[in-house]
Amino acid sequence: MRIDIVTIFPEFFDVLDISLLGKARQTGLIDLGVHNLRDATTDRHRTVDDTPYGGGAGMVMKPEPWGQTLDSILDEKKNADAGPLVIFPSPAGEVFTQAMARELVDEEHLVFGCGRYEGIDQRVFDHTAIRARVRLVSLGDYVLNGGEVAVMAMIEAIGRLIPGVVGNPHSLVEESHEDGLLEAPSYTKPSTWRGLDVPPILLSGNHGAIAAWRREQQLERTRRVRPDLLDRAANEGESPSARP
Ligand SMILES: N#Cc1c(-c2ccc3cc[nH]c3c2)n[nH]c1N
Question: Is the model's pTM score more than 0.95?
Answer without folding.
Answer: no
